[in-house]
Automatic annotation (TrEMBL):
It is found in: Mitochondrion. Its EC number is 6.1.1.2. Belongs to the class-I aminoacyl-tRNA synthetase family. It comes from Hibiscus sabdariffa. This is tryptophan--tRNA ligase. Its main location: mitochondrion. It comes from the Eukaryota. Keywords: Aminoacyl-tRNA synthetase, ATP-binding, Ligase, Nucleotide-binding, Protein biosynthesis. It catalyses: tRNA(Trp) + L-tryptophan + ATP = L-tryptophyl-tRNA(Trp) + AMP + diphosphate + H(+).
Length: 342
């Protein structure tokens, strides 16, 4: 079976962007693929964070995965730092990563510009190498992510090819450059709709955990009245009717897209349903759809988070299964790179 891996950082509340761009698609894929979903706690410490909150955030994120429908009889769910091979492979990969490749990463440029050179840890730059290690350790075929991770995936692919070329030796050359004896070259899976969910307060910026205002995002665990309030206050416009794809109406396009996915309708159906609607009517419609969609997730979340023994069991089993695959790849890399093995 083809393999899929993906993960979310345990920083802040998980929002609709994380769900529609990534998690919701994982659920659809777990029946047809071998799947591993991790909580990327090591990625969550690249910017200043609260040590008191990290372990709790990792648990909460795991509980969200399960509440959204990740099925542990099919998928392995684990915490990145529980599988040591991630960090080990990262070092080995770092030695083959040109610094120019990392300097070009948009997320690095944005985040480091905000913080300033003296306040930016080296890990903010090397972050995509750890992400490549998360993916390449499992010989993954596909990585379901939102649009913002596309560049990191391209770097992962280039890095896999480079290591295959540098250390794959004669075996690699015989394969004529297809596939690789060390790493499989993975492909991103970016959904046709939901790949870039935008902020509720500005249709031109992405919905994000780090935006200062909570009004800009719908969190998966937001109660009904909070959702209603955020939608009530979200940015709209004064054009007549509602439509997709009008560049002058980014908020309208965003809200219609969200509504389309959570109501499982086609774009054409939604375009028709909403073309003559006013904002007031549509806001009620999307609020109800969001509340109906998120309610069962929230009920399951409460059940799961109140059973720590169950959650620990899931994460322990997930880490054991993941480590078996990861350790085999790591051993291969050490051998290919010429290390003395015990
Ligand atoms: P993170 O935690 O920022 O986001 C998790 C997932 O949510 C997607 N996403 C969005 N999708 C649509 N619209 C949005 N507004 C939006 N915001 C976030 C992201 O694209 C991502 O799929 N580096 C990654 C985590 C990571 C990872 C990996 C992912 C580390 N190792 C290996 C896949 C495979 C990140 O920071 O995601």
């Amino acid at each position: 079976r083809k393999r899929i891996v993906s993960g979310v950082q345990p920083t802040g509340a998980i929002h609709l962007g994380n769900y529609l761009g990534a998690i919701k698609n994982w659920i659809a894929l777990q029946n047809s693929y071998d799947t591993l979903f991790f909580i990327v706690d090591l990625h969550a410490i690249t910017l200043p964070y609260d040590t008191q909150q990290l372990s709790k955030a990792s648990r909460n994120t795991a509980a969200i995965y399960l509440a959204c429908g990740v099925d542990t009889s099919k998928a392995s769910v684990f915490v990145q730092s529980h599988v040591r091979a991630h960090v080990e492979l990262m070092w080995l990969l770092s030695c083959s990563t040109p610094i120019g490749w990392l300097n070009r990463m948009i997320q690095f440029k944005e985040k480091s510009r905000k913080a300033g050179d003296e306040n930016v840890g080296v890990a903010l730059l090397t972050y995509p190498v750890l992400m490549a290690s998360d993916i390449l350790l499992y010989q993954s075929d596909f990585v379901p992510v939102g649009e913002d991770q596309k560049q990191h995936l391209e770097l992962t692919r280039e890095l896999a090819e480079r290591v295959n070329y540098l250390y794959g030796g004669r075996k690699w050359k015989k394969l004529g450059g297809r596939g690789g004896p060390i790493f499989k070259v993975p492909e991103p899976l970016i959904p046709p709709a939901g790949a870039r969910v935008m902020s509720l307060t500005d249709g031109l910026s992405k919905m994000s955990k780090s935006a200062p205002s909570d009004q800009s995002r719908i969190n998966l665990l937001d109660p009904k009245d909070v959702i209603a309030n955020k939608i009530k206050r979200c940015k709209t416009d004064s054009f007549p009717g509602l439509e997709f794809d009008n560049p002058e109406r980014p908020e309208c396009n965003n809200l219609l897209s969200i509504y389309q996915i959570i109501s499982s309708k086609t774009k054409e159906e939604v375009a028709q349903e909403c073309q003559d609607m006013n904002w007031g009517t549509f806001k009620n419609l999307i609020t109800d759809a969001l509340v109906d969609h998120l309610h069962p997730i929230q009920v399951r979340y409460e059940e799961i988070i109140s059973d720590p023994a169950y959650l620990d069991g899931v994460l322990a089993e997930g880490a054991t299964k993941a480590a078996a695959i990861a350790d085999a790849t790591l051993e291969n890399v050490y051998q290919a790179m010429g290390f003395l093995r015990r």
